[in-house]
Amino acid sequence: MKKIxxxxxxxFLLPISALAGFDEKVIVDESEIVDGNxxxxxxxxxxxxxxxxxxxxxxxxxxISGTVAGDVFAVGKKITVDGDVLGSIRLLANEITxxxxxxxxxxxxxxxxxxxxxxxxxxxxxxxASFAEVKGKISRGLQFEGAKIEIPGNxxxxxxxxxxxxxxxxxxxxxxxxxxxxxxxxxxxDTAGATLxxxxxxxxxxxNNFFSFIFFDLTFFFGSLVVGLVLITIAPKFVSQVAVKMSxxxxxxxxxxxxxxxxxxxxxxxxxxxxxxxxLALILxxxxxxxxxxxxxxxxxxxxxxxxxxxxxxNYKGSLLWPLVSGLLIFDIVASIPVLGWLIAFVxxxxxxGSLLSAKKEALAEYK
Length: 368
What we know:
Elements (H helix, E strand, L loop, with lengths): L1 H16 L7 E4 L4 E3 L2 E4 L2 E4 L2 E3 L2 E4 L2 E4 L2 E2 L3 E4 L2 E4 L2 E2 L3 E4 L2 E4 L2 E2 L3 E10 L4 E2 L3 E10 L2 E2 L3 E10 L2 E2 L3 E6 L3 E4 L2 E2 L3 E5 L5 E2 L8 E5 L6 H25 L1 H13 L1 H24 L4 H35 L8 H15 L4 H28 L1
Parallel strand pairs: 1-4, 2-5, 3-6, 4-7, 5-8, 6-9, 7-10, 8-11, 9-12, 10-13, 12-15, 13-15, 14-16, 15-17, 16-18, 17-19, 18-20, 19-21, 19-22, 20-23, 21-24, 22-25, 24-26
């Protein structure tokens, strides 16, 4: 499990290592009030004031000590939330510390998670980590998947612990609901000093893999969201141009996407055979994989724009953030449909990839 968490964190945190162009420090001090959503990519971010909307943050280090009226979506190496959040928090980092009040849900993914004694989560908490310590209060349920957890705090609802093989849990706080733990041995749970109701053990072979599926699905969703945020921040005009081209020439985009998908591997193999072409083959392979990956981002933006156009009954004029989030969510849901979903996702990626190539070609022609 520890390797799984670390691998997922690397996938997520790779874009953060490339934030050289966003090296500034962003501060919202105590006297400031931000109306609406606050979206920022930076080296370090400190939010001490009030935000009357949602927070979307990507940085190496993030500290939120102010009040947030909406939800918090944050990705970084180290994240600290000791302010009040009136919505939910969804955090991904190497290290997470929560010590404030969260009015709704907390979804936390990290190598290490600390919910300290001052923290209060009013709804449910879901934690995926190598190590987690829950000292604070959770007013509903707690779900955990990882290698080790300690719970000296208070959980009012049910607790489900997926410890995997050789995982351990130490519970010495108060759990008002039922406690279910999944492991390869009953001895993985220590409840000395705890206040408990019913405790249920499920052997590792009988565990339900649904939570693992959700974890990986959320991992790739938020990974795509991070990359999409970078794209719409540094090149919003180009992203919009690709979306327009996808509408105007859908068949052409799919055809070019299919040609690209089939031809590039052949070219890479031929370059590799020549030996002296290996460096170029490696560069082309990297470009090929990047193109396939970011094609999903453009599909998300296009689908989101289409939905928002229908909802507003007019051409959507707002930020590309909402088309990105809603479109990626719809794409992931559709792609999860057995057989048919995979086929739709495949064609959609071809459509976006071909349109992206065409748009790049036109942009290069204009540059010349």
